[in-house]
Write a structure and sequence with these properties.
β2 and β3 form a beta hairpin. The termini are far apart. This protein has a 3-stranded antiparallel β-sheet with strand order 1-2-3. It is mainly alpha-helical.
Protein backbone atom coordinates (compact mmCIF):
# COMPACT_ATOMS: atom_id res chain seq x y z
CA UNK A 1 0.00 0.00 0.00
CA UNK A 2 1.27 3.45 -0.83
CA UNK A 3 2.16 5.96 1.84
CA UNK A 4 -0.76 8.15 0.74
CA UNK A 5 -3.19 5.25 1.27
CA UNK A 6 -1.72 4.52 4.69
CA UNK A 7 -2.07 8.19 5.65
CA UNK A 8 -5.74 8.17 4.63
CA UNK A 9 -6.36 5.03 6.71
CA UNK A 10 -4.60 6.57 9.71
CA UNK A 11 -6.67 9.75 9.44
CA UNK A 12 -9.88 7.70 9.47
CA UNK A 13 -8.62 5.60 12.38
CA UNK A 14 -7.76 8.76 14.33
CA UNK A 15 -11.24 10.20 13.70
CA UNK A 16 -12.77 6.93 14.95
CA UNK A 17 -10.52 6.98 18.02
CA UNK A 18 -11.50 10.57 18.82
CA UNK A 19 -15.17 9.56 18.58
CA UNK A 20 -14.60 6.55 20.86
CA UNK A 21 -12.84 8.66 23.50
CA UNK A 22 -15.70 11.16 23.38
CA UNK A 23 -18.15 8.29 23.86
CA UNK A 24 -16.09 7.00 26.79
CA UNK A 25 -16.04 10.37 28.55
CA UNK A 26 -19.76 10.78 27.87
CA UNK A 27 -20.43 7.44 29.55
CA UNK A 28 -21.45 5.43 26.47
CA UNK A 29 -18.40 3.17 26.67
CA UNK A 30 -17.38 1.45 29.90
CA UNK A 31 -13.71 0.94 28.99
CA UNK A 32 -11.38 3.53 27.47
CA UNK A 33 -10.31 2.69 23.89
CA UNK A 34 -6.66 2.17 24.79
CA UNK A 35 -6.19 -0.81 22.44
CA UNK A 36 -7.22 1.26 19.40
CA UNK A 37 -4.92 4.03 20.59
CA UNK A 38 -1.99 1.61 20.78
CA UNK A 39 -2.73 0.29 17.28
CA UNK A 40 -2.65 3.81 15.85
CA UNK A 41 0.57 4.54 17.73
CA UNK A 42 2.20 1.44 16.22
CA UNK A 43 0.97 2.33 12.73
CA UNK A 44 2.33 5.87 13.09
CA UNK A 45 5.69 4.50 14.20
CA UNK A 46 5.75 2.15 11.20
CA UNK A 47 4.84 4.83 8.68
CA UNK A 48 7.47 7.25 10.00
CA UNK A 49 10.17 4.62 9.52
CA UNK A 50 9.27 4.17 5.86
CA UNK A 51 11.23 6.30 3.45
CA UNK A 52 9.04 8.98 1.91
CA UNK A 53 10.31 10.97 -1.02
CA UNK A 54 7.54 13.51 -1.22
CA UNK A 55 7.46 16.48 1.09
CA UNK A 56 3.67 16.54 1.12
CA UNK A 57 3.53 13.00 2.51
CA UNK A 58 6.14 13.78 5.18
CA UNK A 59 4.16 16.88 6.13
CA UNK A 60 0.91 14.88 6.40
CA UNK A 61 2.59 12.24 8.57
CA UNK A 62 4.06 14.90 10.86
CA UNK A 63 0.67 16.58 11.19
CA UNK A 64 -0.93 13.24 12.09
CA UNK A 65 1.77 12.64 14.70
CA UNK A 66 1.24 16.06 16.25
CA UNK A 67 -2.55 15.68 16.33
CA UNK A 68 -2.28 12.18 17.82
CA UNK A 69 0.20 13.36 20.47
CA UNK A 70 -1.97 16.34 21.42
CA UNK A 71 -5.09 14.20 21.73
CA UNK A 72 -3.23 11.53 23.71
CA UNK A 73 -1.93 14.10 26.18
CA UNK A 74 -5.42 15.54 26.58
CA UNK A 75 -7.00 12.10 27.13
CA UNK A 76 -4.34 11.16 29.69
CA UNK A 77 -4.93 14.44 31.53
CA UNK A 78 -8.69 13.85 31.57
CA UNK A 79 -8.27 10.26 32.77
CA UNK A 80 -6.00 11.42 35.59
CA UNK A 81 -8.47 14.13 36.58
CA UNK A 82 -11.27 11.55 36.66
CA UNK A 83 -9.24 9.19 38.80
CA UNK A 84 -8.42 12.00 41.21
CA UNK A 85 -12.07 13.02 41.36
CA UNK A 86 -11.55 16.49 39.92
CA UNK A 87 -14.10 15.93 37.15
CA UNK A 88 -17.33 14.02 37.30
CA UNK A 89 -17.48 10.58 35.81
CA UNK A 90 -20.46 10.01 33.57
CA UNK A 91 -22.54 6.99 34.44
CA UNK A 92 -22.57 4.31 31.74
CA UNK A 93 -25.61 4.68 29.51
CA UNK A 94 -28.16 1.92 29.74
CA UNK A 95 -30.22 0.87 26.76
CA UNK A 96 -33.61 2.50 26.69
CA UNK A 97 -32.73 5.06 29.35
CA UNK A 98 -32.98 8.62 28.15
CA UNK A 99 -33.09 10.55 31.44
CA UNK A 100 -33.15 9.90 35.18
CA UNK A 101 -36.31 8.53 36.72
CA UNK A 102 -38.98 10.72 38.25
CA UNK A 103 -38.07 12.48 41.51
CA UNK A 104 -40.43 10.37 43.60
CA UNK A 105 -39.07 7.05 42.39
CA UNK A 106 -36.63 5.31 44.71
CA UNK A 107 -33.38 4.40 43.01
CA UNK A 108 -30.30 2.87 44.57
CA UNK A 109 -26.65 2.25 43.85
CA UNK A 110 -25.20 -0.44 46.10
CA UNK A 111 -21.53 -0.30 47.08
CA UNK A 112 -19.54 -2.77 49.15
CA UNK A 113 -16.74 -1.88 51.57
CA UNK A 114 -13.69 -0.44 49.85
CA UNK A 115 -15.65 1.01 46.93
CA UNK A 116 -16.14 4.55 48.24
CA UNK A 117 -14.95 6.25 45.01
CA UNK A 118 -17.81 4.59 43.10
CA UNK A 119 -20.19 5.48 45.92
CA UNK A 120 -19.11 9.11 45.76
CA UNK A 121 -19.63 9.15 41.98
CA UNK A 122 -23.16 7.76 42.46
CA UNK A 123 -23.79 10.37 45.16
CA UNK A 124 -22.65 13.21 42.90
CA UNK A 125 -24.66 11.88 39.94
CA UNK A 126 -27.80 11.54 42.08
CA UNK A 127 -27.39 15.06 43.48
CA UNK A 128 -26.95 16.54 40.03
CA UNK A 129 -29.87 14.54 38.63
CA UNK A 130 -32.05 16.11 41.32
CA UNK A 131 -30.70 19.57 40.50
CA UNK A 132 -28.96 19.90 43.85
CA UNK A 133 -25.46 21.13 44.55
CA UNK A 134 -22.92 18.64 45.89
CA UNK A 135 -22.15 19.76 49.43
CA UNK A 136 -19.24 17.43 50.19
CA UNK A 137 -15.92 16.96 48.48
CA UNK A 138 -14.57 13.43 48.05
CA UNK A 139 -12.39 13.51 51.17
CA UNK A 140 -15.17 14.71 53.49
CA UNK A 141 -17.56 12.19 51.95
CA UNK A 142 -15.05 9.33 52.43
CA UNK A 143 -14.52 10.31 56.08
CA UNK A 144 -18.29 10.41 56.66
CA UNK A 145 -18.77 7.03 54.97
CA UNK A 146 -15.93 5.43 56.96
CA UNK A 147 -17.38 6.70 60.25
CA UNK A 148 -20.90 5.52 59.35
CA UNK A 149 -19.64 2.13 58.16
CA UNK A 150 -17.69 1.57 61.41
CA UNK A 151 -20.66 2.59 63.55
CA UNK A 152 -23.13 0.44 61.59
CA UNK A 153 -20.91 -2.63 61.35
CA UNK A 154 -20.75 -2.73 65.16
CA UNK A 155 -24.50 -2.42 65.41
CA UNK A 156 -25.31 -4.86 62.59
CA UNK A 157 -22.54 -7.28 63.46
CA UNK A 158 -20.73 -7.66 60.14
CA UNK A 159 -20.18 -6.16 56.72
CA UNK A 160 -22.34 -3.25 55.71
CA UNK A 161 -23.32 -2.31 52.18
CA UNK A 162 -24.00 1.35 51.55
CA UNK A 163 -26.50 2.61 49.02
CA UNK A 164 -27.31 5.97 47.55
CA UNK A 165 -31.08 6.30 47.54
CA UNK A 166 -33.21 8.92 45.87
CA UNK A 167 -36.60 9.02 47.57
CA UNK A 168 -39.14 11.81 47.23
CA UNK A 169 -36.54 13.94 45.46
CA UNK A 170 -33.98 13.65 48.29
CA UNK A 171 -30.59 11.98 48.03
CA UNK A 172 -29.52 10.02 51.08
CA UNK A 173 -27.03 7.41 52.19
CA UNK A 174 -28.64 4.16 53.34
CA UNK A 175 -27.04 1.07 54.87
CA UNK A 176 -27.98 -2.57 54.78
CA UNK A 177 -26.39 -5.76 55.88
CA UNK A 178 -23.83 -7.18 53.53
CA UNK A 179 -23.84 -10.81 52.41
CA UNK A 180 -21.60 -11.87 55.33
CA UNK A 181 -23.43 -9.87 58.00
CA UNK A 182 -25.19 -11.87 60.70
CA UNK A 183 -28.76 -11.07 61.47
CA UNK A 184 -29.53 -9.99 65.03
CA UNK A 185 -32.89 -11.21 66.30
Amino acid sequence: MSVGGQIALLEKALRDLIRDWERYFAGDLRVPPLDAQERIERRLRTITQQPSRQRAERFQVEQLQHRFTAYTQNWNRMLRAREEGRIRQAAPAEEGRTRPGPPNAASAASVSPGEEPALYDHYVAAKRAQGEQVGLDRQAFDEHVAAERAKLSKRLGGDVQLDILVTDGKVRLAARKGPTAKREE
